[in-house]
């Protein structure tokens, strides 16, 4: 028997006692007359939708506070790159999704004071090229980039900036493998959040998060 999508669909289930019990499944349509988010927005937006549309058309900033976050990968030429999606309501009540791309994924390794910068970089490249992490996974060295930077160490008190190697990867999976390998050598690291990378992104990009 076929049912209209706006109706409840009835099924039967036989329990262990052989008693026939009805199962009701709602089709997701408007049978119950419950308004959707869009219905509520249309009735209560009081002109805010027009304000938003004008602001977006003129490329102006609009109020947005994310209430949910999703970390994901976007594949470009077969390579996964880290992206961050933010979800939250706009001033008129509509739900919006903001996708942030081109996020830099990295951690830093402090160069020991008694080490030549370039020789130390060669050592790090050899470590990453030849070693594996605790789960026997190797880093894809072709996706690794290294930059020389200077920054204040968070350990101890220093009046001058120290030299670091910044290790860039394409996504958090490769970063985790590379970081795990480096950790085995008891080197001082920075920008080395172990989990919830989105919080590191929020700090560095000035993104306000709730919760």
Automatic annotation (TrEMBL):
Gene3D superfamilies: DNA Polymerase, chain B, domain 1. It comes from the Eukaryota. InterPro entries: RNaseH-like_sf. SUPFAM superfamilies: Ribonuclease H-like. This is Uncharacterized protein. It comes from Gigaspora rosea. The lineage of its organism: Eukaryota, Fungi, Fungi incertae sedis, Mucoromycota, Glomeromycotina.
């Amino acid at each position: 028997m076929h049912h209209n999508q706006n109706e409840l669909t009835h099924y039967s289930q036989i329990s262990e006692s052989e008693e026939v019990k009805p199962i009701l499944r709602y089709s997701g349509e408007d049978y119950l007359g419950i308004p959707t988010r869009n219905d509520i927005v249309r009735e209560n937006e009081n002109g805010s939708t027009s304000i938003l549309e004008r602001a977006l058309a003129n490329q102006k900033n609009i109020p947005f506070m994310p209430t949910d976050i999703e970390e994901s990968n976007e594949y470009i030429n077969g390579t996964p790159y880290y992206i961050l999606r933010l979800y939250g309501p706009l001033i008129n009540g509509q739900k919006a999704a903001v996708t942030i791309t081109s996020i830099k994924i990295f951690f830093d390794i402090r160069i020991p004071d008694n080490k030549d910068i370039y020789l130390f970089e060669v050592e790090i490249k050899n470590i990453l090229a030849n070693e594996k992490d605790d789960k026997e996974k190797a880093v894809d060295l072709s996706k690794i980039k290294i930059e020389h930077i200077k920054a204040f160490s968070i350990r101890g008190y220093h009046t001058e900036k120290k030299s670091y190697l910044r290790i860039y990867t394409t996504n958090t999976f490769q970063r985790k493998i590379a970081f795990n390998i480096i950790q085995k050598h008891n080197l001082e690291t920075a920008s080395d959040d172990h989990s919830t990378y989105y919080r590191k992104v929020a700090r560095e990009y000035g993104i306000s998060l709730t919760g």
